[in-house]
Structure to design on (244 residues):
């Protein structure tokens, strides 16, 4: 696993408090490809074995800068994954129609799903080595695809993920100039047994409801397989491209 990445660097997983983030951090630690694995989240807990836990809140830029400073003191990052996002919360959920859009809620979703990853890129990408392969990836969703949108609804979440795709594409162009070995990816993990998907699992076929460990393994395989020429693209857990 992750044989395409030079050994000796670090892996950074943001959102290690969630199901997919924890599974990704555990897999990175078990791979022994990294000199150090960092796992950041809003609620710092003992976390995953072999993973250095730290605080980071995507809505607080100072916390992102502080986390980047911690990473800068260790081995340079070869893998950075943003494995967090927001779809629903106390008192709100994905909208069924435009009439349900609430401005404050939409701004909250955009802050976590789009602005947060942009700030992570701002503070963390300068730490990526200038030579050799590295990966900067963010978990997205197929519903963020404009070309694949046939059902409508979910206005805030769809918009935030479509904007995330543009962010990843734009970042890939910028990093190609200074870090041509870096692969920037938007990744769709499928429907995973997690708090984010819990209210929406009833209509998911059992074989399409993935365990976090399975999803993490497949996503890491996609990151391993994709090369700089693929940078800026969106891919699903099965390594298939997703339409913009």
């Amino acid at each position: 696993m992750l044989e395409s990445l030079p050994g000796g660097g670090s892996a950074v997983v943001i959102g290690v408090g969630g199901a997919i983030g924890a599974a990704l951090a555990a897999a990175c630690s078990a791979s022994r490809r990294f000199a150090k694995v960092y796992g950041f989240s809003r609620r710092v807990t003992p976390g995953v074995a072999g993973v250095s836990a730290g605080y980071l809140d995507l809505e607080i830029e100072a916390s992102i800068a502080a986390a980047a400073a911690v990473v800068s003191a260790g081995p340079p990052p070869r893998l950075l994954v943003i494995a967090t996002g927001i779809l629903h919360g106390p008192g709100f959920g994905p909208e069924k129609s435009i009439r349900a859009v609430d401005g404050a809620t939409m701004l909250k979703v955009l802050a976590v799903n789009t602005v947060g990853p942009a700030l992570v890129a701002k503070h963390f990408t300068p730490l990526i080595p200038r030579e050799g392969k590295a990966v900067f990836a963010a978990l997205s969703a197929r519903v963020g695809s404009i070309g694949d949108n046939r059902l409508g609804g979910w206005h805030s979440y769809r918009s935030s993920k479509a904007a995330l795709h543009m962010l990843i594409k734009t970042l890939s162009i910028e990093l190609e100039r200074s870090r041509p070995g870096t692969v920037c990816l938007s990744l769709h993990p499928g429907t995973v047994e997690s708090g984010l998907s819990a209210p929406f699992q009833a209509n998911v076929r059992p074989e399409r409801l993935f365990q976090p460990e399975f999803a993490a393994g497949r996503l890491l395989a996609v990151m391993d397989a994709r090369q700089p020429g693929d940078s800026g693209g969106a891919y699903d857990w099965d390594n298939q491209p997703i339409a913009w």
Observations:
- The radius of gyration is 17 Å.
- The chain has a mean pLDDT of 92.
- The first helix runs from residue 19 to 31.
- DSSP finds five helices and nine strands in the chain.
